[in-house]
């Protein structure tokens, strides 16, 4: 099956200007002429080469800590860049190229369309001004070849999942989109981070100290007496750097009270004794009954 041929530019047919023309007639023959200007123009509107120069996109996996603190990470890319064998010239090293007689070596050809003269890229030499007789064995005359390169990517501290950066590689540019893994310890909210800290019942009631894992170091906390579950302790400036501003976010530590599933006999007796003195209990407590005098008793 024959391959479909690319559509050639339509040349407009100019009307007989010796007779009066209506506005509709003029618009009819001007439309294809505008199309030709768009196809052969050297401006950005008619330059289709930019389609092939779009930067390639890559995905980079990061851990939570790498994204939060920043890291220099080595990365392998396959990119179309200047052929290293022919240095982008397209011909095999040591061979000569032939002067293009079609455009006179200018790389541009002239198209006459009635009263208009337009210049476009030479169809014979592709704008080079010369004809390659012996193409480069690597790039086959294109002047560019796919190359594998290892680059060092400076990941800025504070990047978020899905953010994209643009980076030059050789004479090209690439887009790198970051995919940040979830942390088993921290939860992120912009530049702020959140984590949980489990404390005992005794620490919650009487207060004390505890150690929490921070993003940069271990944090020593003072637990005030009467601490409630889900109470938050704010550590100012211990969060993630603000990527588009100055300073750091905060680290919020959420207190979780760990309730033991089993008690020793002594612990159970002490808890029952405490339960006898409780006055703000809604409902009942196993092992504690209400006496006729209104006092709570363990029944011992």
Automatic annotation (TrEMBL):
One of its GO terms (biological process) is negative regulation of apoptotic process. It is found in: Membrane; Mitochondrion. Residues 70-148 form the CR-type domain. Keywords: Acetylation, Chaperone, Membrane, Metal-binding, Methylation, Mitochondrion, Repeat, Transit peptide, Zinc, Zinc-finger. One of its GO terms (cellular component) is cytosol. GO terms for molecular function: heat shock protein binding; protein kinase binding; signaling receptor binding; unfolded protein binding; zinc ion binding. A zinc finger (CR-type) spans 70-148. Its main location: membrane. PROSITE patterns: ZF_CR. PANTHER family: DNAJ HOMOLOG SUBFAMILY A MEMBER 3, MITOCHONDRIAL (PTHR44145:SF3). This is DnaJ heat shock protein family (Hsp40) member A3.
């Amino acid at each position: 099956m024959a391959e479909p041929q690319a559509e050639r530019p339509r040349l407009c047919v100019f009307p007989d200007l010796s007779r009066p023309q209506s506005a509709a007639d003029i618009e009819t023959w001007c439309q294809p002429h505008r199309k030709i200007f768009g196809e052969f123009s050297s401006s950005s509107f008619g330059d289709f080469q930019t389609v092939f120069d779009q930067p390639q996109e890559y995905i980079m996996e990061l851990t939570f800590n790498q994204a939060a603190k920043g890291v220099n990470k080595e990365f392998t890319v396959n990119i179309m860049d200047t052929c290293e064998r022919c240095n982008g010239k397209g011909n095999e090293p040591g061979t000569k190229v032939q002067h293009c007689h079609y455009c006179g070596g200018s790389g541009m050809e002239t198209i006459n369309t009635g009263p208009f003269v337009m210049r476009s890229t030479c169809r014979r030499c592709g704008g080079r001004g010369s004809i390659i007789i012996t193409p480069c064995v690597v790039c086959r005359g294109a002047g560019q070849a796919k190359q594998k390169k290892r680059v060092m990517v400076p990941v800025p501290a504070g990047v978020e999942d899905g953010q994209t950066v643009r980076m030059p590689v050789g004479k090209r540019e690439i887009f790198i989109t970051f995919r940040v893994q979830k942390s088993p310890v921290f939860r992120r909210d912009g530049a702020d981070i959140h984590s949980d800290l489990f404390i005992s019942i005794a620490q919650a009631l009487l207060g004390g100290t505890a150690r929490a894992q921070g993003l940069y170091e271990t944090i020593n906390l003072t637990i005030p007496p009467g601490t409630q579950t889900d109470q938050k302790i704010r550590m100012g400036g211990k969060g993630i750097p603000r990527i588009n501003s100055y300073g750091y976010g905060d680290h919020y530590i959420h207190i979780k009270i760990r309730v033991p599933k089993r008690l020793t006999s002594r612990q159970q007796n002490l808890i029952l004794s405490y339960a006898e003195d409780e006055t703000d209990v809604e409902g009942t407590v196993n092992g504690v009954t209400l006496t006729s005098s209104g006092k709570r008793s363990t029944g011992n």
